[in-house]
Write a structure and sequence with these properties.
Layout: H1 6-32, H2 39-61, H3 63-84, H4 92-111, H5 114-136, H6 142-168, H7 180-203, H8 218-239, H9 244-272, H10 287-291, H11 294-309
Helix pairs in contact: 1-2, 2-3, 3-4, 3-6, 4-5, 4-6, 5-6, 6-11, 7-8, 7-9, 7-11, 8-9, 9-11
């Protein structure tokens, strides 16, 4: 429909309906309680419209633009990560090579060279960065800087690039098209956050990691896992090549790994004593605040799908 594979079109339509509903609900809440400040709520809804609009535009235009779009997200995420984590003055010349890995990594994605895509950052960039650090001749803080740069590059470039590689996999579900698996991953990951939040608010009693994220509860976690597992079982055959029972496994994988992606970045923020990783997205914080779960769910879902059907 409108040139979009039918199942992907229905999911896009569902997301738009959810956004319209969210806008109407937030407007109603503001009218009912004019004495309260709902600026953050309004900003969150407006930011969702902007983010979803840009995402859908990039995905629907063509594969190349979509790959470039995720490469740009990797750049923003790496830039934000390195802006909040202290680095040495001498590391600036090393950071250049970390940034340079982005266009190279996404080039492997664009041409579909899986072998180089999967080893370029974990092997070649992993070895290159400390060699460049050695050539600078500064040993104080060497181990800490190497760890920061390696981890930042792995999370923001390597992990996120798995979303883009889903776009270039051979289409095995014509009703979903090349964007189907990406829509499935993004929707399940983001809806997992929502489900865990709602279940936690309704039934949450027992805290799961109070020192890291005091609002996370076992009830919220398990409720979110159950909800996403079942939902993924229903929608996976529509948007991916997966069968319903494989969709259940994918949903379980996404819900559990998404939780850990969230709390890992929460640990980073607590260590740095900051509330948000940035202010790029009004009402949400930074790009890492919005992509924390995806950095864990993307590679795990990708490899589950890849080794199941490719």
């Amino acid at each position: 429909m409108f040139g979009v594979p039918i199942h992907s079109f229905y999911l896009i339509l569902l997301v738009i309906i959810l956004l319209v509903s969210g806008s109407l609900i937030s407007s109603r809440i503001e009218r009912q309680h004019p004495d309260k400040d709902y600026t953050e709520l309004r900003q969150r809804v407006q930011s969702w419209w902007l983010m979803i609009g840009i995402l859908f535009a990039a995905l629907l235009f063509n594969q190349t633009l979509a790959v470039v779009f995720f490469g740009f997200l990797s750049f923003l995420a790496l830039k934000e990560f390195l802006s909040i984590v202290p680095t040495r003055q001498t590391d600036r010349r090393v950071i250049f090579w970390a940034y340079l890995s982005i266009p190279v990594q996404y080039y492997w994605v664009a041409i579909g060279w899986y072998g180089m895509f999967i080893i370029f950052i974990p092997v070649y960039i992993f070895l290159l960065l400390p060699v460049r650090m050695v050539l600078l001749g500064e040993t104080r803080g060497f181990i800490r800087s190497a760890g920061i740069l390696h981890w930042a590059t792995m999370l923001t470039v390597f992990c996120i690039s798995h979303i883009a590689y889903l776009l270039v996999l051979p289409v095995k579900n014509e009703a979903a098209g090349y964007i189907g698996p990406v829509l499935f991953l993004l929707f399940m990951t983001q809806f997992n956050d929502v489900c865990q939040y709602i279940w936690g608010k309704k039934l949450g009693r027992h805290k799961i990691i109070p020192k890291v994220s005091p609002n996370k509860t076992w009830e919220g976690f398990l409720g979110g896992v159950a909800s996403i597992t079942l939902l993924a079982g229903l929608t996976a055959p529509l948007l991916t090549p997966l069968l319903w029972w494989e969709g259940l496994i994918a949903g379980l994988l996404i819900s559990v790994s998404g939780f850990f992606g969230d709390v890992v970045i929460s640990s980073v923020k607590r260590d740095l004593q900051i509330k948000d990783t940035g202010s790029l997205i009004p009402g949400h914080g930074g790009i890492l605040d919005r992509m924390d779960s995806l950095m864990f769910t993307a590679p795990l879902f990708f490899h589950f799908l890849f080794y199941s059907y490719y």
